[in-house]
Amino acid sequence: MSTKSTNILGIETSCDESAMAIFSSEHGLLAHHLHSQVELHKPYGGVVPELASRDHVRKMVPLLRNLLDKANLKANDIDGVAYTAGPGLLGALLVGAAFARSLAFGWGVPSIGIHHLEAHLLAVMLEDKKPKFPFVALLVSGGHTLLLQVESIGNYHILGETLDDAAGEAFDKTARLLELPYATGAEISKIASQVSKHPYHFPRPMIDRPGLDFSFSGLKTFTRNTWQKSDQSTQTKAEIACAFEEAVADTLAIKCRRALEKTGYDSLVVAGGVAANQHLRKQLQEMTDSLNAEIFFPRHEFCTDNGAMVAYTGYQRLLTDKADALDISVRARWPLATATTEKP
Ligand code: KG4
Ligand code: ZN
Q: Is-contact 98 324, C-beta < 8 A?
């Protein structure tokens, strides 16, 4: 790659967002664009993989056209193409991978498959306030809940993880059982903010045990039982949402504190869709303040899935690695520890 400005296109299609962005070595993020499939999947109460793939196919070319216009670039200004190669929905991943590889082949530039969780982790590097290595990271998304010791880019050691549901999954399932119109964590948060107190004490799972693993399925069951035994009024729904959100945030904060104490590090990065949760952000901010540690978050729109994190991670990878061969392969499952050592 040239030492002058290098522009990397990033393509994200691992689940239900079609997203693209261009990261420039000289100017940072030039443009990003996202099409959400929320409306498409809403009637089914969850993401339908086949519909997700088909919609990604429909959106790839218009998204790229729009993105190049926004960045005021032409196709021949792009120096490399990065795409999410896993983990995620196989069909959805294949759409992004096939599109990315074909563009790279047509344009005669390198392409590289990116680990989705590594991209989430590095999204914070697009902010003005960014951490220095090493740091502890809490990665909380719809499919994963991980506590990581991050030594440098590509050097990720897992300190703890969920033994059952991911934090985002617990939010989504709780939203469904409370019959919210959109079964998402953001909806739980919205109704929880309508109340300032509640009469419940929800469990903080696994905090009495040593270690840094999580478990959220018991909390989900507790929430369901509490809801079923309640008067099921709108007020009660908001109070239960609030108690649930507090329990998740508290549990995550307790484990993050332990991880900072265990490693002796003084920086915490929080990433993934659940990092958009205001209550969690506040709780973690208070915890790090009490330890004299610093906390770093991506901006809200880069907590959830986006193309910018893929473009940035692709830029980092193409600086250090060779581009992948042009065959198209993706992985539904892919351990983060092997993000840079194993190809998709
Ligand atoms: O990182 P992400 O966009 O996709 C995955 O890689 O999974 O995360 C999506 C998850 C969903 O479970 C969603 O409910 C949750 O993040 N989420 C939230 C909030 N916004 C998104 N959870 C709690 N509060 C929010 N404000
Ligand atoms: Zn994600």
A: no
Range of lowest pLDDT (86-90, 188-192, 206-210, 238-242): 206-210
Q: What is the Å distance from ligand 2's center to 117 Cα?
A: 7
The dihedral sign for the CA sequence 150, 156, 160, 162: positive
Which structure tokens are listed for 89? Answer: 């929905």
In the reported structure, the alpha carbon of residue 144 is separated from the centroid of ligand 2 by a whole-number distance in angstroms of: 9
Query: For residues 206 and 339, what is the distance between their CA atoms, to the nearest angstrom?
Result: 28
pLDDT digits (tens, 9 = 90+) for 3-29: 578 999 999 999 999 999 999 999 999
Q: How far is the CA of 247 from the centre of ligand 1 (A)?
A: 17
Please report, as a single letter, which amino acid is at residue 42: K
Q: Is the pTM of this model over 0.85?
A: yes
Under 8 Å between Cβ of 150 and 131: no
CA of 274 to the centre of ligand 1 (A): 4
Contacts of 100 (CB under 8 A, 6+ apart): 9, 11, 81, 82, 83, 111
Contact 294, 266 (CB under 8 A): yes
* Dihedrals phi, psi of 118, to nearest 5 degrees: -65, -40
Residues with CB under 6 A from ligand 1: 15, 120, 141-143, 168-169, 171-172, 184-186, 189, 272-274, 276-277, 304-305
- Take atom 8 of ligand 1 and give the residue whose Cα is closest: 273
Average pLDDT over residues 262-268: 98
Encoded tokens for 140: 């909380």
Confidence of residue 44 (pLDDT cuts 50, 70, 90): confident
